[in-house]
Amino acid sequence: MDNDIFANNSIVIDMGSSQMKAGFGGDDKPKLIFNSYIGRPKYKALPVANSQEFYVGNQITDSTRGMMKIKYPYQRGVIKDMNEMDQLWKYTFQELHGNPKECPILLTEPPYASQSQKVEIAKQFFESYNCPALFFAVSGVISLFASGKTTGVILDVGDTVSQSIPIYDGFYIQHSAQRVDLAGRDVTENLNNLLRRAGYTFTTTAEYEIIKKVKEKRCFLSPAMIGEDKFQEERKIKDQYMLPDNSTIELSFEKQRAPEILMCPEKYGLELNSIPEILANSIQKVDLDLRKPLYSEIVLTGGTSMMQGFPERLIGEVKRLVPKEAKVKIWAPPERITLSWQGGSILSHLASFKSMWILKKEFEDEGERILIKKQL
Hints:
Elements: E1 11-15, E2 19-24, E3 32-35, E4 38-41, E5 55-56, E6 68-71, E7 74-75, E8 78-79, H1 82-96, E9 105-109, H2 115-128, E10 133-138, H3 139-146, E11 152-157, E12 162-168, E13 171-172, E14 178-180, H4 184-197, H5 205-218, H6 228-234, E15 239-242, E16 248-251, H7 254-257, H8 275-284, H9 291-295, E17 298-301, H10 310-321, E18 330-331, H11 339-348, E19 358-359, H12 360-366, H13 368-373
Parallel strand pairs: 1-9, 9-10, 11-17, 17-18
Antiparallel strand pairs: 1-2, 2-3, 4-5, 4-6, 7-8, 10-19, 11-12, 12-13, 12-14, 15-16
Helix pairs in contact: 3-11, 4-5, 8-10
């Protein structure tokens, strides 16, 4: 193996539907975190204006977002538009001052990523960027790695997807992994619907981002499911929230009700398993003699898991779904929003990991087969 390939630090990119996190292997935290969307101007610019065809990440500010049509090219673990995704990756390299021709690149992926998508990404990195080496790491596996555990369940609650991934003694138990298309974006949409009923209208893609901010700053989960009478009491408590244009909206029970969709989606017309259900189901699909340590090593990751009250509510809901003798323990590391990236940073920096990298020549010679051969 050509050691010159590893003369430079690897670039680690955690691809998320809401945010991308990027930095260099061996670092403690990512150097770059930005919203994983593309903004295109809605209006024709005057000839004297300094206008671009599209804007990426931190190029889109609160003051300019209203003039943009916002689009997310990566949703529910699937790339919707490779050309737009290409712009996110190029922006990443530019902001990191990292040359993809000189650095091995580790990308995170969900456990259900399609082989065809991996091939398409590999072609983009090897053929368009001339990347010397590439690796796809399952986000849940490396998140547990970053937490210092080798046995446990990663519950990753992101923006568009939630997934529960059991790992035993370092082995990812693939058949037991569970996922549901229910996550933070559903809370945002639920909050928007509730605010619409209260007389507030947010319709554009830019205004959707405002609702997302309201969710992040004000929404919380109650310790247990509450009845309609309690929600009616909450209506009396008003909370003023200032919008970017200095106008205000009044929030009351919406703050508490919007996140309930994660715990009881059927109440909102969704025929989906709840977050506690996918967690309990994933453990119960594991062989009986392996379950005990998994119940006590549940690790949270993902931005939506940062919501106030989420860990406390989750443990109560899970206990209702599993055997009474199960000792359920949930770990909620404060840095869990970047846990997957940290795992990739640690992994890519290990000397023993060098043989796992997919080299450009290997991909040219073997194609898709090498992607199957070299994976965690």
